[in-house]
């Protein structure tokens, strides 16, 4: 380490004035130190201020540029050093190097950018601002047309870089799709027949037991690329081969692995294979659910969040076909998912909610059982206020509504009323999404029909009647929203305080206008509602 300190001091003093031989020697020393103890050496390099020197050296495009990019790639393997890499101004010169023709420079630059982007919002944003993804994608597109084996490593690195760049970021994924990444991936599947997949599977097999950082990075990139190849529907089906494909079988063997990267890639691959009903039904019938439950079981206490998220994604997709729901409930999926209720990680919360919502669709018994679970309902009510996480907030509201709609149970309604869920359902009725508005109104209609007395004070304080008046008065409200709002008005008339509120607002005037609505169902309900309002006024 003393040698490292001397080298850093020398680089700091001379920087770009170093002769190329001396600079080469200094860089070799840094790479050697990183190979011996990456974390400690990376920390020392960052503290020395050399990252800013690297930014200047990269802009000079010297003969040792590939080595500098290699050093940055090694440093950026450490999570806490990715933001310093961005703050030191390394991204713009690295992105410029992507225009270089030298294979080694491209390889190390791709690795550096990929590592800086890994699980780092700041890294992704900086690469986005510098236009790096477009250049990498253009390279990838041209590589697809070449059959030179020397390009395989570059292709793997660039695919891994785009994976890290866009992972868990909807807007960046949309950006790549708009660039045309899917047709390019389909072309990559042309290379599947030329042995790319076998090559990737061999890399996984060779590196899975290694502790070397280089092998760990190679394993990650190879398994990530395997998942990336499954994003296109055509390529996914080709590799699934009706559930008999060797690639699918190999991916299944990754789930029980002790290697977190392989577990993650396996679960993500299953989630991708589970994008059509036929595949989902086949996988559930052939025991995939128990494999995913076993995987999740190993990650309940202080588990790997990315593995939790991926396994829950797979279960959610598998639960979409109607025939799978009862089978998955019998297998104990709901109980397994509930083990993650304590999670404070929004991505896990989001997938947990989505999985439960898919499972209880038209499953009255399961909806009732979950709806009477006080701990679950309390957590849903808490997450309905997660304003920083719109996805979690939306899914919590939808699950709250689904528990009522699918169970039609007084016990479930009482549990939700007592837990403070009413106000969230009323707010949900004002959502910008028609499907969510409708789900809320149907749930509120069931509450009013089955448990009006216990819910009336909550409906009153949530200003339900005023919300319904607004929805009926708004010309932009969808026909189903108008229809269900009128059904709900009729239902709440059985409550004296709510009845008074209905009378105090000009409902009769609004409803009578709807008798001539172009939608016949709305017009008929308007006539019925008008009669009820007139009789009870």
Automatic annotation (TrEMBL):
It is found in: Cytoplasm, Cytosol; Endoplasmic reticulum; Mitochondrion. GO terms for molecular function: guanyl-nucleotide exchange factor activity. SUPFAM superfamilies: ARM repeat. InterPro entries: ARM-like (IPR011989), ARM-type_fold (IPR016024), Armadillo (IPR000225), RAP1GDS1 (IPR040144). PROSITE patterns: ARM_REPEAT. Its main location: cytoplasm. This is Rap1 GTPase-GDP dissociation stimulator 1.
């Amino acid at each position: 380490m003393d040698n490292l300190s001397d080298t850093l001091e020398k680089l700091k003093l001379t920087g770009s004035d170093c002769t190329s031989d001396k600079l080469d020697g200094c860089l070799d020393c840094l790479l050697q130190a990183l190979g011996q103890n990456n974390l400690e050496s990376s920390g020392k390099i960052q503290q020395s201020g050399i990252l800013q020197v690297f930014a200047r050296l990269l802009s000079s495009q010297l003969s040792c540029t590939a080595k500098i990019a290699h050093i940055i790639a090694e440093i950026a393997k450490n999570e806490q050093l990715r933001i310093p890499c961005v703050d030191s101004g390394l991204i713009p010169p690295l992105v410029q190097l992507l225009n270089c023709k030298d294979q080694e420079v491209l390889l190390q630059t791709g690795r550096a950018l990929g590592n800086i982007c890994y699980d780092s919002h700041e890294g992704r944003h900086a690469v986005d601002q510098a236009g790096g993804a477009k250049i990498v994608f253009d390279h990838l597109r041209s590589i697809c047309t070449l059959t030179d084996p020397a390009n395989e490593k570059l292709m793997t690195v660039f695919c891994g870089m785009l994976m890290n760049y866009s992972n868990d970021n909807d807007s960046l994924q949309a950006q790549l799709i708009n660039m045309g990444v899917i047709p390019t991936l389909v072309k990559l599947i042309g290379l599947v027949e030329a042995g790319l997949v076998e090559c990737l599977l061999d890399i996984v097999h060779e590196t899975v037991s290694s502790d070397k950082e280089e092998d760990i990075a190679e394993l990650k990139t190879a398994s990530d690329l395997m998942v990336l190849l499954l994003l296109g529907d055509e390529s996914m089906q080709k590799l699934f081969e009706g559930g008999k494909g060797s690639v699918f079988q190999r991916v299944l063997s990754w789930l029980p692995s002790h290697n977190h990267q392989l577990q993650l890639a396996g679960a993500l691959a299953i989630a991708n294979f589970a994008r059509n009903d036929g595949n989902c039904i086949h996988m559930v019938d052939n025991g995939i659910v128990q494999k995913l439950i076993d995987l999740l079981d190993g990650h309940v206490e202080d588990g790997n969040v990315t593995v939790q998220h991926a396994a829950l994604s797979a279960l959610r997709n598998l639960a979409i076909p109607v025939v799978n729901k009862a089978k998955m409930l019998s297998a104990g999926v709901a109980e397994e998912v509930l083990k993650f209720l304590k999670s404070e990680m929004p991505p896990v919360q989001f997938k947990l909610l989505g999985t439960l919502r898919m499972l209880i669709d038209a499953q009255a018994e399961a909806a009732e059982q979950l709806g009477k679970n006080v701990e679950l309902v309390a957590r849903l009510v808490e997450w309905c206020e997660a304003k920083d996480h719109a996805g979690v907030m939306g899914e919590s509201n939808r699950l709250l509504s689904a528990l009522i709609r699918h169970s039609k149970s007084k016990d479930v309604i009482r549990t939700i009323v007592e837990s403070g869920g009413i106000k969230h359902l009323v707010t949900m009725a004002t959502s910008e999404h028609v499907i969510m508005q409708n789900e809320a109104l149907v749930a509120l209609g069931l509450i009013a029909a089955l448990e009006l007395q216990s819910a009336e004070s909550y409906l009153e304080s949530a200003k339900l009647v005023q919300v319904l008046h607004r929805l009926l008065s708004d010309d932009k409200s969808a026909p189903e929203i108008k229809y269900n709002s009128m059904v709900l008005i009729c239902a709440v008339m059985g409550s004296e305080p709510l009845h008074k509120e209905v009378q105090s607002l000009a409902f009769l005037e609004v409803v009578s206008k709807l008798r001539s609505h172009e939608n016949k169902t709305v017009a008929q309900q308007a006539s019925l509602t008008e009669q009820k309002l007139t009789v009870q006024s």
